[in-house]
């Protein structure tokens, strides 16, 4: 009786979408997928893990603490007296060639660069060379926004204020003679930091931009005269400053100080005795911090890190074991086929 | 008019008695009664914003985010920028406000439409057309045929004899038959004389406004006399005047004070059980949040004491901030950071998902009824997932299970059964629409809509078989139907009950056309010959007699008594000579009853003239007797209705809607209990119970509770319990006190065998009393199906409330009439049958569609999917946000509890809005474990929803554990991988920004893969959403960290370059892979083992689907369900009491008639314009055109007011 009447506007459209008939892929966790999947993942992980482990094993790392809490340490004198420009040295020995390029890091522990109040205490606009923020730094910088006279601090904020200021010189002792190992301090900061994020105000000479401002309270030198040897390495574009300003994620961290890429040491640090001369300025004892220096070389996967390789190996093996367990369970308690 | 949209009417002391005087506005105004204007809207232009915001902030979530916002503005606390909260909050508030505004606009419109209706009011001695809203208490108004009653009126006079009016009350109580109201003679005399009416100054004292539809008490003082007023003289707003040319009424209650409006009540805001669970969980989460923040604050305190105090060289404290104060600030800072455990986007997403799933319902072609052009409609968009958890269905009968159409289906005449069609081999054929039906063209007066398939009956008529003729003659004579004839030969009948109409129509088509009646005669056309029978008496129908008879004198002068009634009753009164015929007919009756047909036995007897005149004399005496009139009349009737000769039996089909038995069977397979609550009689209800498969012959027992006293009912209930569970009496009702909530719950009890319960309205009243309700509920829940008959609308709601109160179960009520409104509102989900005349049920319902059978699809497909999707969504959403948040918690231990976020602020803002919003929405809009065909095939798939298996406190707890694991992986793997490592060019990589980037990338990968694991239905859209979101993440991240963005706003985008510098490192990617795999592997293992070791029904079906692959099972056979026949009394007559005395008033009327000069010969005229339709006493032999949509139906949210413009109906 019902003839094809003229289509009513109330009649719902017959589309796959409105009728919920969209074509779809309906995967289920069947034994045919899960068990081989586990085996495959397991094998792949073991493969990657072995590769990572071997790579990481070949990376050389030399880490030395120079905090100077122990009386035996040469730096003990600096640590307890807290005199200015205290110099101490650290002797060490390298038994085999430390393959180059060698990277030289300083490390701090128990240091909370990742504290929220510490982290926000900076003014990115100021660091970008915005002169209005020179005169009136962002309130984020509190309590290092202005000095006691109300003069603005540039660069303001806790991060800049607490910049690491120990300096190092490395000598190789060859036959009682000290050869200075040349440090390369160029390009140790991120390219983006150096070229984009930080910028000196375009004022010549740079010093004039800082009129009516004061240097951070802890600093001995103003930011525009951080490096006497290289005038271009001053202001906010000072490499050490840039490295420091990239705050660490965790309370124990290391930061790149110099690279050893030049002269006789291009191929690495040869075996022998070395002396590290430290200008010990940075106080860490108050908060139980440690100061370290680290020599390391890198591979395609970066610095030495055994964790990844081991983790891959463990998880890969677990996958294989689980696939066995699943296979047994599947064979034994096989899904009841009849309903 | 209140300007602010608020009711400025100050609450005066409660009205104790209403006093009013007709035609005296001054006097009536002094009482400050409500005018007839109604207002259902909530806001106006000025109040909208403040009121709406006030309402919105009453929602706990919104208030919470407001508090958060305030916290974020405090610089010492603010650990996140303000925009992370403001953007989502404003979005949510705007969307909700827009929705509320449109809703209210619609209400304004419908109010306006109703208030501006016109009615004739007697003002200053003239009839004037006034708007409804200007009608006042004490006004006299004139109503015309088919008009809606404007307010609650005292009927003064009418155009009909005896000052009767006919009204249809379907909108009020859902009763199907026309009702009669009669004015007091003293006011009836006013007639339509405007002068007299204007002089009428009667004073009414009556009850204050209330919501009792069935009662009214008051007095009318007029001309020094007092008259009692009762419900019989009152016309209530919401009724429709039928079959009455005009009437005058005095307004007693107007507007909000009418009984209809008092009954409307406030529709309560419905929430789903998932909503309620979510609220509990959100509170738990708040508690948990406070715990975490407290732990972190304590951590901060310890850190400040041990380390922070020494670290002040580099990080000095602000003035005067000691460790304690710092911890205090930290607490609030962490409240802000960890707020993502309850993100505002949860609420928005839930609403979007529900909206989307509601649209699917609107769009579903399989729930579209092409016949009435009615699509299904989700009127409430917030209850979808509840549809997947229904445990109890309360269904109306008339119009819901049945079409309210009676069809003359079969008959047995003189021992021969007609109505079935056989093929050559004698096999009974299924009757379908394609079968050629009997051609009635020989009869010009035949009703073209009547369809009959058995040709042998019409042959028998044509062969002038005397029994067949007598049979149809009886049907044409013995009834109280009134006929109308607009044009020559265009007959239409108006019957009190559809059954009677069907019988008379059958007779009409078989050549015995009932043409017209006067109080003392009936004209019929017998096989083309006009004959007039003298109507001597109507021995009317009532519930005790269960039969009616007429005594007529044929044109030839022969006196006969024709009787039809319930077979058991008739059989007792038959002459012995019929015994053989009785046996055969009994067999046929059994067969008919077995098919669920409503049967009547027909008998006649020729009367002796002398005896009759003597009987008539006694009858006259009895009917004028002052005492004991009823029983005297009964005796007389009893005396004359004996030694009858059996003619045969009729079988009327109370036509079920399509697919009702199948739907009920399917739903009961899904473990849904169906209770039928009907206003109909017990026999009818039982009959329908059998025919729609609710009650079955195989059932061990069907208990019938019909006690008339509290003790009887209790006894009957106890007996039923004992026979179902012999030791039931020993252990008292099992109640489990829910800890903390103090809610008593009745557990489901298992009984052996299947039982049914039928309970009568009067017994139900006792059963619902406090002391017995548990007994009743317990008994009812032990039974497979329950039928409550003769229940009032209020009782329907009470039954629903009872189940809601003591059962932790989701209820659904389905109905089509105004009498179902209370139950629809009371149940968790209300479903209205649309596409028919009455709209009130639909208007108060949450879902509506045209056919009962769509319920199956609504629940088993849409409901199940909605529930599944919602649960998956919630589980996943909590997982992804907990994981996101917990990482902060772990990081706190490494950053001095300083409320440092792990991720970039932009990532935090966009995580829920952008990166994970679409994939999870895609899953919750498209996911389906098995398709609809399989859902029907395995109704058991519905059961987990009833048991709340997919999302519960336990599932939530599992989510939290899972998140905890994932967050540990997500924090410590990057931690270990990055710790002390450097880039491949020796530069630093363990800086905060690289770590943040690495962690957030890992997180996004992990949650995306987890989503992939949850999703069982990957459409192209899903794939696009998931991959798109990942791509989007990288695009946005690289953009945010680009030079350009930094140059634009240096302080807003400090992460410049991190992406470029980290994501080119192989160990970063190795870490991402490791983290993602490690997050997912245990889940896969667990699930795989779970499926193998203890598969759920879903797993089994999905497995089966996979095996069956592209070949879905054939749809279940749609066979007509036949049962073995057992004798049941199923006699037709859906009304309780005939109005034979009205038909014949003046002759046997107990009340002496006043003016009956023209008698009822004008009934036909009076009936012009009356359309027998829908729930009125309409009937159609075929049923098709009757229940179709009435054109131009105007609908308001309060009343169903229609303007019928189609005269052809």
Automatic annotation (TrEMBL), chain A:
Its main location: membrane. It is found in: Membrane. The chain crosses the membrane at residues 28-54, 310-331. One of its GO terms (cellular component) is plasma membrane. InterPro entries: CDC50/LEM3_fam. GO terms for biological process: phospholipid translocation. It comes from the Eukaryota. Keywords: Membrane, Transmembrane, Transmembrane helix. Belongs to the CDC50/LEM3 family. This is Cell cycle control protein. It comes from Kryptolebias marmoratus (Mangrove killifish). The lineage of its organism: Eukaryota, Metazoa, Chordata, Craniata, Vertebrata.
From TrEMBL, chain B:
Pfam families: Cation_ATPase, PhoLip_ATPase_C, PhoLip_ATPase_N. Mg(2+) binds at residues 396, 398, 816, 820. Keywords: ATP-binding, Lipid transport, Magnesium, Membrane, Metal-binding, Nucleotide-binding, Translocase, Transmembrane, Transmembrane helix, Transport. Residues 21-86 form the P-type ATPase N-terminal domain. It catalyses: ATP + H2O + phospholipidSide 1 = ADP + phosphate + phospholipidSide 2. Belongs to the cation transport ATPase (P-type) (TC 3.A.3) family. Type IV subfamily. This is Phospholipid-transporting ATPase. It comes from Kryptolebias marmoratus (Mangrove killifish).
């Amino acid at each position: 009786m019902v003839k094809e009447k003229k289509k009513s506007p109330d009649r719902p459209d017959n589309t796959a979408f409105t009728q919920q008939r969209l074509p779809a892929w309906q995967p289920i966790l069947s034994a045919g997928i899960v068990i081989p999947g586990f085996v495959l993942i397991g094998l792949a992980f073991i493969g990657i893990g072995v590769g990572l482990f071997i790579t990481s094993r070949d990376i050389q790392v030399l880490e030395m603490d120079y905090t100077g809490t122990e009386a035996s340490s040469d730096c003990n004198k600096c640590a307890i007296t807290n005199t200015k420009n205290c110099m101490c040295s650290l002797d060490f020995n390298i038994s085999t060639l430390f393959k180059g390029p060698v990277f030289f890091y300083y490390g701090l522990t128990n240091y909370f660069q990742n504290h929220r109040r510490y982290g926000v205490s900076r003014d990115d606009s100021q660091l970008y060379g915005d002169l209005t923020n020179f005169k009136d730094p962002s309130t984020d910088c509190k309590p290092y926004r202005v000095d006691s006279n109300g003069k603005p601090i540039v660069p303001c904020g806790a991060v800049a204020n607490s910049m690491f200021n120990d300096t190092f010189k490395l000598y190789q002792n060859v036959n009682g003679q000290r050869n200075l190992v040349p440090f390369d301090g160029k390009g140790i900061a991120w390219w983006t930091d150096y070229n984009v994020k930080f910028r000196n105000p375009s004022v010549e000479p740079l010093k004039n931009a800082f009129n009516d401002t004061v240097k951070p309270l802890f600093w001995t030198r103003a930011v525009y005269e951080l490096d006497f040897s290289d005038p271009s390495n001053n202001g906010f574009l000072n490499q050490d400053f840039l490295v420091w300003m990239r705050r660490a994620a965790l309370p124990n961290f290391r930061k790149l100080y110099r690279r050893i890429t030049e002269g006789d040491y291009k191929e690495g640090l040869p075996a022998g005795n070395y002396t590290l001369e430290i200008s010990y300025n940075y106080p860490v004892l108050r908060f139980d911090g440690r100061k370290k220096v680290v020599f390391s070389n890198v591979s395609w996967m970066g610095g030495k890190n055994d964790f990844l390789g081991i983790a891959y190996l463990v998880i890969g093996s677990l996958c294989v074991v689980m696939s066995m367990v699943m296979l047994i369970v599947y064979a034994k308690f096989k899904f009841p086929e009849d309903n | 008019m209140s300007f602010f949209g608020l009711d400025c009417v100050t609450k005066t002391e409660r009205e104790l008695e209403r006093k009013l005087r007709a035609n005296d506005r001054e006097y009536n105004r002094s009482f400050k009664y409500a005018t007839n204007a109604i207002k259902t809207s909530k806001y106006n232009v000025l109040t909208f914003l403040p009121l709406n915001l006030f309402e919105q902030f009453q929602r706990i979530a919104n208030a919470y985010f407001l508090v958060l916002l305030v916290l974020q503005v405090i610089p010492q606390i603010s650990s996140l920028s303000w925009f992370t909260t403001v953007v989502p909050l404003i979005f949510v508030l705007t969307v909700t406000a827009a929705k509320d505004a449109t809703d209210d606009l619609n209400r304004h419109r419908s109010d306006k439409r109703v208030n501006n209706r016109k009615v004739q009011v007697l003002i200053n001695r003239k009839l004037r057309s006034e708007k409804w809203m200007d009608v006042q208490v004490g006004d006299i108004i004139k109503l015309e045929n088919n008009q809606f009653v404007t307010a609650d009126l005292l009927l003064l006079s009418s155009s009909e004899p005896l000052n009767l009016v006919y009204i249809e009350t379907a909108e009020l109580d859902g009763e199907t038959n026309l009702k009669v109201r009669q004015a007091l003679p003293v006011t009836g005399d006013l007639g339509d004389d405007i002068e007299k009416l204007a002089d009428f100054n009667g004073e009414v004292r009556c009850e204050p406004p209330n919501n009792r539809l069935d009662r009214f008490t008051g007095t009318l003082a007029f001309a020094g006399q007092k008259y009692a007023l009762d419900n019989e003289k009152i016309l209530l707003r919401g009724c429709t005047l039928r079959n009455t040319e005009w009437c005058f009424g005095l307004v007693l209650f107007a507007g909000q004070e009418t009984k209809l409006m008092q009954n409307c009540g406030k529709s309560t805001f419905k929430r789903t059980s998932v909503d309620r669970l979510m609220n509990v969980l959100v509170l738990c989460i708040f508690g948990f949040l406070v715990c975490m923040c407290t732990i972190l604050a304590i951590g901060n305190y310890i850190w400040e004491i041990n380390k922070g105090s020494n670290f002040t060289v580099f990080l000095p404290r602000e003035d005067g901030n000691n460790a304690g104060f710092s911890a205090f600030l930290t607490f609030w800072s962490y409240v802000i950071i960890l707020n993502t455990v309850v993100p505002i986007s949860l609420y928005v997403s839930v609403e979007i998902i529900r909206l989307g799933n509601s649209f699917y319902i609107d769009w579903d072609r399989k729930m579209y009824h092409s016949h009435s052009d009615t699509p299904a409609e989700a009127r409430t968009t917030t209850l979808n997932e509840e549809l997947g958890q229904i445990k109890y269905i309360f269904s109306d009968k008339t119009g819901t299970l049945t079409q309210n159409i009676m069809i003359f289906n079969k008959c047995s005449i003189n021992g021969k059964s007609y109505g079935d069609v056989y093929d050559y081999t004698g096999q009974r054929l299924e009757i379908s629409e394609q079968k050629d039906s009997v051609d009635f063209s020989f009869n010009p007066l035949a009703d073209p809509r009547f369809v009959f398939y058995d040709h042998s009956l019409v042959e028998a008529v044509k062969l002038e078989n005397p029994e067949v003729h007598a049979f149809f003659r009886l049907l044409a004579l013995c009834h109280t139907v009134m006929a109308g004839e607009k044009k020559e030969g265009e007959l239409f009948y108006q019957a009190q009950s559809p059954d009677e109409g069907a019988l008379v129509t059958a007779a009409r088509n078989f050549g015995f056309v009932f043409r017209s009646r006067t109080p003392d005669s009936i004209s019929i056309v017998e096989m083309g010959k006009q004959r007039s029978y003298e109507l001597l008496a109507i021995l009317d129908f009532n519930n005790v007699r269960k039969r009616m008879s007429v005594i007529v004198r044929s044109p030839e002068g022969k006196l006969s008594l024709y009787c039809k009634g319930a077979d058991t009753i008739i059989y007792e009164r038959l002459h012995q000579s019929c015994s053989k015929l009785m046996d055969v007919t009994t067999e046929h009756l059994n067969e008919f009853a077995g098919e669920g047909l409503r049967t009547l036995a027909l008998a006649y007897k020729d009367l002796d003239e002398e005896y009759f005149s003597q009987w008539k004399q006694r009858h006259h005496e009895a009917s004028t007797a002052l005492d004991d009139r009823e029983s005297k009349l009964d005796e007389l009737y009893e005396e004359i209705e004996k030694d009858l000769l059996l003619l045969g039996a009729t079988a009327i089909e109370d036509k079920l809607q399509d697919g009702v038995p199948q739907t009920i069977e399917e739903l009961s397979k899904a473990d849904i209990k169906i209770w039928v609550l009907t206003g109909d009689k017990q026999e009818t209800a039982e009959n329908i119970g059998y025919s729609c498969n609710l009650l079955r012959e195989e059932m061990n027992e069907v208990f019938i509770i019909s006690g008339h006293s509290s003790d009887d009912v209790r006894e009957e209930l106890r007996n039923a319990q004992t026979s179902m569970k012999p030791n039931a009496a020993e252990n008292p009702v099992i109640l489990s006190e829910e800890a903390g909530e103090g809610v008593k719950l009745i557990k489901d009890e298992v009984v052996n065998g299947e039982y049914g319960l039928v309970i009568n309205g009067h017994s139900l009243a006792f059963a619902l009393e406090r002391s017995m309700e548990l007994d009743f509920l317990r008994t009812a829940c032990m039974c497979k199906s329950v039928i409550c008959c003769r229940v009032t609308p209020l009782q329907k709601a009470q039954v629903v409330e009872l189940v809601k109160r003591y059962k932790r179960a989701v209820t659904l009520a389905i109905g089509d009439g105004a009498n179902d409104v209370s139950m629809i509102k009371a149940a968790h989900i209300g479903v209205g049958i649309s596409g028919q005349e009455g709209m009130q049920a639909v208007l108060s319902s949450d879902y509506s569609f045209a056919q009962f059978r769509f319920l199956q699809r609504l629940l088993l497909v849409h409901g199940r999917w909605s529930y599944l999707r919602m649960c998956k969504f919630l589980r996943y959403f909590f997982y992804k946000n907990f994981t996101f948040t917990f990482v902060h918690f772990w990081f706190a231990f490494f950053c001095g509890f300083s409320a440092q976020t792990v991720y970039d602020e932009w990532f935090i803002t966009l995580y829920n809005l952008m990166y994970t919003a679409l994939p999870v929405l895609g899953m919750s809009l498209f996911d389906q474990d098995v398709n609809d065909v399989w859902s029907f095939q395995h109704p058991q798939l519905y059961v987990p929803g009833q048991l709340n298996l997919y999302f519960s406190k336990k599932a939530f707890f599992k989510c939290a554990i899972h998140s905890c694991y994932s967050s540990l992986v997500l924090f410590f793997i990057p931690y270990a991988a990055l710790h002390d490592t450097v880039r491949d060019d020796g530069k630093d990589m363990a800086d905060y920004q690289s770590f943040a980037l690495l962690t957030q990338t890992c997180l996004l990968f992990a949650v995306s893969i987890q989503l992939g694991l949850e999703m069982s239905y990957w459409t192209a859209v899903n794939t696009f959403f998931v991959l798109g979101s990942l791509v989007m993440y990288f695009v946005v991240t690289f953009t945010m960290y680009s030079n350009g963005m930094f140059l634009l706003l240096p302080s807003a985008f400090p992460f410049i370059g991190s992406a470029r510098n980290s994501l080119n490192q192989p160990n970063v990617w190795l870490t991402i892979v490791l983290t993602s795999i490690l997050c997912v592997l245990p889940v896969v293992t667990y699930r795989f083992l779970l499926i193998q070791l203890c598969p759920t029904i879903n797993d089994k079906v999905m497995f089966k689907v996979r095996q069956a692959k592209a070949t879905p099972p054939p749809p279940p056979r749609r066979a007509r369900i036949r049962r073995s026949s057992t004798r049941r009394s199923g006699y037709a007559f859906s009304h309780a009491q005939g109005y034979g005395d009205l038909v014949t008033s003046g002759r046997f009327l107990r009340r002496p008639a006043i003016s009956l000069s023209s008698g009822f010969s004008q009934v036909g005229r009076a009936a012009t314009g009356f359309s027998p339709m829908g729930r009125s006493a309409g009937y159609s032999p075929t049923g098709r055109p009757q229940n179709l949509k009435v054109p131009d139906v105007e609908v308001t949210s309060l009343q169903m007011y229609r303007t019928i413009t189609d005269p052809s109906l």
